[in-house]
Structure formats: structure tokens, C-alpha cells
Design a protein that fits this description.
By secondary structure, the protein is of the alpha/beta class. It contains 19 helices and 20 strands.
Length: 638
């Protein structure tokens, strides 16, 4: 459970209708397997001890009594295990029969959660046999002791305060106001559901939407265990459709019509991080709940969970294309509004032939189309200097032509050389002054041309560069509207590729593909044999690593040790652990020292869940100490 990860399971045994002894044996086998797999929370289907489809046999005292006896045997078998399990069964209390989920752990029944909403429509007639449960909790006899009985029970872990489990049963989640809403508001981070939902055409898709949506709405993990093989097929078929979701994401889903154990690793820290950020997520009503405590042996969870190495980029091609179109539209609409508000009919941008300026041009062209402004009012300025290569220069020229923009060349070599003379800088000293002087000269040229034309300068820098501070202060750092300000470098590539694939212009697509093949570089140092000599990723590290770090740190507030662990898992086989740690250290150092650049960023549209705008997502002091984070990174080096 280190770093908030806990392995959970939804299990569907093959049952025999009205045979509690057989069913208990099958459940017991699965529970032992779960323990061997280090599962900490295991959920079984509704009425699993008897089978859901007993019909009027639920009125038979022998079945009710046997189910209770088998539950106590099952509980006894958990002695010595810290896995908490939820098992469905019928429970008679005060002359009424209830549909309950029993929580079992370490030889005990921790509580009996009652089903509140009994379906009595269509193929369901539960009200014929069962009484609706209430939220109010009371103690009832169970074996030699008493246990809490009712709807408002939360199961809280002594060793892991963030682990709070609430339970509901099948129909409870299908109603307008599910009990899980109150459970989550009272602090439950995990909701379990013992279910018996039959299969009809299209129902599985709705079930997916329902469970994923509930986990998103409640910002929780949701473990849904459904009845399957062995249930009566007299009128219905049950598919054992099990789902484990977390905050709107499906972590794992079983194939229907198969029995077995579905596992996933939930991330409690991720859930708590999301809830902390949401000012509208309120904890309330906890005083109305019975807190049933249990203990877990805290151990390191061996992760089965997929850790996406590219969290900003959807892996599915169709979803990726959809996302790219959406982002380009957001960027263009942001610029469209700014053009309309200022009355500007001209845009000026520095076109280097690199990725970021290419994307800025494509977005600007789209915005001009939306404003019905001719594209020849976009002025692309290429400003060759000491580091410019023929490849990027030619690509810039072709792009301007093929997008319908105008191109102006302003060679800044002479101006920068004179500037070096004015400040007494040795031309052979290729230090930061040598580099930044070029960047600032380019920005001055763009600003002055924009003034001449009554236009605005379009910023090209991306979010990854801003996170690392890889931008010249008051150089490429500055513009009048930064269209790429919340687009990470890994996503810039896919946006340009998407445009190349969909633009329908062969020559434009060809030059865009060549831009994609060009090494990322600010081109501020002289070329070597005509090729780019200054490669950004050789200097600050791979952008795919930095974007991964950026996402985990800003999206969820994870500690350096957890970010390192996730990165090692995500990039296993691609980067050695020493390499990951090296660049993680660089990220933290640059992130804290370069905040002053982000504190005065130009306006720009937010496109995703992570952004670094000082007016929105990242209100961070420029002089905040990074010591706490750097010390933890240094501990990882030992």
C-alpha cells in the first residue's frame, strides 16, 4: 500500500442455486487466491451465498438459516488474513428478510450493509421476498457477538486513514440518489457494490457508463462485482460483468460470461488529491455513520496498474485525433476572441521552422479563418542568426507560403553583433549572454513590426518549456497572446502530425513531417557542418520524461519518490533508473528556480487539466524554496 496503492478485486464464483455450502466453498477458494495475490479488498456478487435467482425459495427457513451458518464459517476462514471481503446473502432480522452485504475480515463479521432500493419492475420482483433496508444502523446478533446492521456503515482502516469503504447493493447505484453519494460525502474513498445485474442487449454499455460516471462524480474508486455463471437461466442470463473504476477511468473490466477474479490497483493518493483541489467537494454527514474499524498490514503493492508514459496524449488513435481537433479548436477560439476584442487584423509571429512556431502558425491560420480575415494578414518573420540552419530556414519559408501567410526576413546577425560590441561581449564566448541576446533581439523585432502594422505578436512557447524555464526572459518568453502556453511538448508533436494528416495539402503535409523529424533546438549556437549543434533534449533532458513529471506533480501533487516510482514503471526498458532520477532532479531544480518567468506570462488559453498560468492553475511564489523536494530526490540517489 506504499504511495497510496491498494490492490482490489471483484470476484464472480460459479454458484449453485440454493446451495450455500457449495457457494461458500467457491467463495472461499477465491478468497484464498485473492490473499495469495495480495488483494486487500475483495467484493463478491449480490446474494452470492445462496445465488440471486432463488425466487420464492428465499421464503424457506432452511435456506435462510444455512446461509447464515455458511457466512459464519466463511468469516472463521478469514482468521489471520487482513483482506476485507464483501459477500452478499439474505439475512433475517425481526421477522423480515433483508438483502445484505457482509464485510468479513480476520475471523470476524465487521458489519451487515442493507440494500435500500428493491427493484420490483420488469424482470425483478425483490419486494416479494425482501424488506427495504434503512440508513440507520443498529446492533444485531451475529454468531456469538453483535455487529452493526444498516445502510450507514463505513469501514475505516486504522493504518491508512485515507482508506474508507462504503457499500451499496446493485439497484442502489441505479436510482436517482444512490447511497454512495452520502457515503462519499461522509468520507468514503472506495465504494463497493455487490450486484446481480442480468444481461440484455445494450445493458453492459450502460452499466459501464453508470459505474465510470459514479466514480467520477464521487471522486472515488468503485469496485463492482456482478453475478454470473451458475445463476438460474430460467428467464435470465447473468454475465459476471465486473468493473473496477477510479475517478471516471476504467482500471479493469472483465469479459462477460466468464467467472473469475478481476483485480486492479487503486490510487488513494490520487483520489485525495482530486478531492483537496475541488472546493465544491464537501465532507459532511459523517456523524450519521457507524465507523467499523479494521486493520491492514501495510506492504508495498506490486503494481499491475498501467502507468501511461504519455499522460497528455491519448493512446487510442481515434481518441487522440478527437483530442487534437478539440485542442486546436480551443487554441483558435482563444485567439479569435483576442483578435475580435482588440480589433487587430494582423498577427505577427516568429517562424523558426521548429515545432512550436509551426503549431502557432497553424492555430493562427485557423483563428483567421474563424474571423474571416484573409490569411495574408498573418506575417511570419524569419530571423536568421548564428545558429540558423538551412533546413529550418527552408521549412519556415515553405510553411508560410503553403498556409497563405506572408513572409518577411529580418537577418539579425548584424544587429546582435553590434549589440555585443556595445556591451563588450566577446563573440567567441558562446555563453548565456550570447544565446539570450539573439532571443531578445528577435522579440524586439517582432514587437516593433507588430507596432508598425497595428497587429499583435503571437507567442509560440509551449508549457514544457515554461515548466523548465527553458525560455529567455523577455525574449521568446514574451508575446501579446501565447497560443501554446498550456500545450506540453509531447502533445505539440501530435497536434502538428494530426494537422499534417488531415490538411489535405500534400506539400504542406510534407514540410510538417520534416519539421517533426527535426531535432528540437533554439538554434542559438553555430551549426556543425550545417546541422543543428544545440539539441534541447541533450541539455535539459527528454521531454517525454519532463512531461510525465509535470503531469504527476501538478495534476496530483505526488511526492518525488512516488513520481520516481511511477516513471520507472512507465519507462521500464526505455530509461535506466539512474537516468530517470537524473532528469527528475533537473526538473525540480529548474521548476522552482524558474517560477519568476511563469509569474508574468502573457495571456493564453488553457487546453487541458494541467496548466502553469499564474492567473489560474499555478499560483506559486517565485521565491518558494524547493529544498523539501530536492532533499527527497537526493535521498533516492543513496
Amino acid at each position: 500500500m506504499k504511495d497510496g496503492f491498494i490492490k482490489v478485486a471483484a470476484a464472480t464464483p460459479k454458484v449453485k442455486v440454493a446451495d450455500p455450502s457449495w457457494n461458500r466453498e467457491q467463495i472461499s477458494i477465491m478468497m484464498k487466491e485473492g490473499q495469495e495475490r495480495h488483494v486487500k479488498i475483495m467484493v463478491f456478487p449480490e446474494l452470492a451465498l445462496t445465488a440471486y435467482t432463488c425466487g420464492d425459495l428465499f421464503g424457506q427457513k432452511a435456506l435462510i438459516r444455512k446461509a447464515r451458518e455458511e457466512l459464519l464459517l466463511l468469516a472463521a476462514e478469514t482468521k489471520g488474513s487482513d483482506m476485507i471481503s464483501f459477500v452478499g446473502l439474505p439475512w433475517e432480522e425481526n421477522g423480515k428478510l433483508y438483502n445484505v452485504a457482509a464485510a468479513l475480515q480476520d475471523g470476524e463479521v465487521l458489519g451487515l450493509v442493507t440494500k435500500r432500493n428493491l427493484p420490483n419492475y420488469g424482470e425483478f420482483y425483490e419486494a416479494r421476498n425482501f424488506e427495504s433496508g434503512e440508513g440507520k444502523v443498529r446492533l444485531v446478533s451475529c454468531g456469538a457477538g453483535k455487529v452493526p446492521f444498516g445502510g450507514n456503515i463505513l469501514f475505516t482502516c486504522r493504518e491508512i486513514p485515507d482508506l474508507v469503504i462504503g457499500a451499496e447493493i446493485c439497484e442502489d447505484v441505479w436510482v436517482a440518489c444512490p447511497p454512495s453519494i452520502a457515503h462519499a460525502q461522509a468520507g468514503a474513498t472506495v465504494i463497493v457494490n455487490c450486484s446481480a445485474s442480468d444481461e440484455t442487449t445494450g445493458k453492459s454499455s450502460y452499466r459501464d457508463t453508470l459505474i465510470w460516471g459514479q466514480s467520477a462524480r464521487l471522486v472515488c474508486a468503485y469496485v463492482y462485482a456482478n453475478a454470473g455463471d451458475g445463476e438460474s437461466t430460467q428467464d435470465l442470463v447473468f454475465g459476471g460483468h465486473n468493473i473496477i473504476a477510479e475517478n471516471g477511468t476504467c482500471l479493469s473490466e472483465s469479459k462477460r460470461f466468464e467467472t473469475g477474479i478481476l483485480t486492479a490497483d487503486i490510487d488513494l493518493e490520487r483520489i485525495e488529491s482530486e478531492r483537496r483541489k475541488m472546493s465544491t467537494f464537501k465532507i459532511k454527514g459523517r456523524e450519521e455513520y457507524w465507523m467499523a474499524e479494521f486493520s491492514l498490514h501495510v506492504e508495498d503493492t506490486v503494481l499491475e496498474r498501467f502507468i501511461d508514459p504519455a499522460p497528455f496524449v491519448p493512446d487510442n488513435p481515434a481518441e487522440r485525433s478527437k483530442r487534437c481537433e478539440e485542442i486546436l479548436s480551443i487554441q483558435a477560439m482563444g485567439l479569435k476572441k483576442r483578435l475580435e476584442h482588440t480589433g487587430c487584423k494582423t498577427a505577427v509571429l516568429g517562424l523558426s521552422g521548429g515545432l512550436d512556431s509551426t503549431l502557432a502558425l497553424l492555430v493562427t491560420a485557423r483563428a483567421f479563418d474563424l474571423c474571416a480575415i484573409p490569411r495574408d494578414q498573418i506575417l511570419c518573420v524569419t530571423m536568421p542568426c548564428f545558429g540558423t540552419t538551412d533546413r529550418t530556414y527552408q521549412n519556415a519559408c515553405v510553411m508560410a507560403e503553403k498556409t497563405g501567410a506572408r513572409l518577411q526576413e529580418v537577418d539579425i546577425r548584424e544587429a546582435v553583433t553590434l549589440h555585443f560590441k556595445d556591451i563588450g561581449h566577446d563573440m567567441s564566448n558562446h555563453d548565456v549572454t550570447y544565446e539570450n541576446s539573439q532571443a531578445r533581439e528577435r522579440t524586439q523585432v517582432l514587437m516593433d513590426i507588430a507596432n508598425q502594422m497595428g497587429g499583435m505578436v503571437i507567442g509560440t512557447g509551449d508549457m514544457s518549456e515554461l515548466a523548465l524555464g527553458w525560455a529567455t526572459y523577455n525574449g521568446d518568453h514574451m508575446s501579446m497572446y501565447g497560443v501554446n502556453a498550456s500545450v506540453p511538448k509531447t502533445l505539440v508533436r501530435h497536434l502538428v502530425r494530426y494537422f499534417a494528416d488531415t490538411c489535405g495539402e500534400k506539400e504542406l503535409a510534407a514540410v510538417l513531417m520534416d519539421v517533426l523529424d527535426t531535432p528540437v533546438s533554439p538554434e542559438l549556437l553555430p551549426p556543425e557542418d550545417g546541422d543543428i549543434s544545440q539539441k534541447t533534449e541533450d541539455l535539459v533532458g527528454p521531454y517525454e520524461l519532463h512531461d510525465f513529471f509535470l503531469y504527476q506533480i501538478l495534476r496530483y501533487g505526488y511526492t518525488p519518490s512516488k513520481v520516481y516510482r511511477l516513471a520507472r514503471t512507465a519507462f521500464d526498458g526505455l530509461y535506466e533508473k539512474e537516468t530517470v532520477l537524473k532528469w527528475l532532479k533537473v526538473f525540480y531544480r529548474r521548476f522552482f528556480t524558474q517560477q519568476f518567468k511563469r509569474s508574468c506570462l502573457p495571456d493564453g488559453p488553457k487546453v487541458g487539466s494541467v496548466a502553469v498560468s499564474p492567473r489560474g492553475d499555478l499560483r506559486m511564489p517565485s521565491d518558494a524554496s524547493g529544498r523539501l523536494w530536492m532533499e527527497e530526490v537526493e535521498e533516492l540517489e543513496k
